Amino acid sequence: DGPRASSSTLPAGTTMEPFTIAAAQSMAATTEPTTTATLPATTTVTATTVLPAVISTRPASAERSMQISAARNALDLKALEFSPVYRCLLEQKFFDHFSTDCTQSCPTNSAVSHGQCVRAETADPRAQVETTWQLGIECGGPCWEDGTMNSTLHGARLSIAGHLDIPFQEVEVTLGLAASTSRRLAATHTAYMTAKVSSNRISEIQSNTLLGSFAQDAASMSSLLGLRVLTVASGTPPAQPSSPVNMGQGSDPYVPAYADVERTAGPRGRATPVTSPVGFLPTEAIIGIAVGVVVLAAVVGVLIWRRQRQRRAAAGAQQPKAVAGKTAGADTTPPAEKEDV
Fold it and tell me: Name one GO cellular component term (predicted).
């Protein structure tokens, strides 16, 4: 007999089923957390077997689904739905910043950049211009969440770029709050919106002039930012703003969506569909496919010609037989019966 791990004294008439580690693990995976049981007074335990802990993990697919759902919620697709630039690109047209409409071709003396009709580049170095507006806003609790501001900041980039007639890719927007010195929660806060322009399509003087004429009334800013703006004035952002959010070309989550449809804009884009698989093939493969199509067409043409020739020959052979049959039928016509007078 093998060694015994434990011995116990059970009441008379009590039977015990075999208990294995595998069974214990199965129970641990399907039952609630450990409960305490009171043993009879006559029961003694001489050895204890420590079972490995069973850790319940969420499937990797579920974790991935949660991540995708979180990313989808963070990216407000209304920014693309209401973007005039994206709408024109979907129609395989350019967006004209000068007429604020879709167009088949850009006006004279303008240039195409990222599917947009904008000011042409100059030989001057890129002008770096920065303008800040101080906003008095009314909001309770957190004025915004980082994820929910994606649509707002993207819309601000589009609006400022349209005012300057430059591609929105050359505009960066930052929004932040002034740090509060009061311990009490206030309904009004001071916010700062900063627009940075980096472009060689417009001079520094022109940029400052145009940014100074950007809509600065409370109603326009409220519509632009989706916040209740009470006052607007020029200002200087604090060194360390609270709850800062920023969006530029390197941090705009909507850039891939624009890049996907940008190459189909205009006449050249319409001539080359996005889904065409030929564009991904090398020249040698395209030539080989063309030769194969020509050879296949020649073979099919020969087969069709031979089949038509056989049909004409068969039809010609059946025609004399039909004529002979008609003649024989005429000779065997029975004579007319005589009538009794």
Answer: membrane
Rounded CA-CA distance 43/6 in Å is 12
Tell which residue, 219, 218, 201, has the closest CA to residue 210.
201
Q: Is the pTM of this model over 0.90?
A: no
> SS3 of 120, please?
coil
β-bridge pairing 188-199 and 171-177: antiparallel
The beta strand positions in the chain, using DSSP E, are 94-96, 101-103, 110-113, 116-119, 127-138, 171-177, 188-199, 228-234, 242-247
Angle between helices 150-164 and 218-225 (to 10 degrees): 130
pLDDT in tens, 39-91: 454 444 444 444 444 444 556 667 656 655 555 555 678 889 999 999 999 99
122 in Cβ contact with 201 (< 8 Å): yes
Instruction: Name which of 173, 175, 177 is nearest 141 in CA terms.
Output: 177
Among 142, 179, 159, which Cα is nearest to 225's?
A: 159
- 37 or 234: which carries more pLDDT confidence? 234
Distance CA 71, CA 84 (A): 24
Q: For 221-260, what is each residue's pLDDT tens digit?
A: 999 999 999 999 998 888 888 888 999 999 999 999 999 9
Q: How far is CA 116 from the centre of its chain?
A: 21
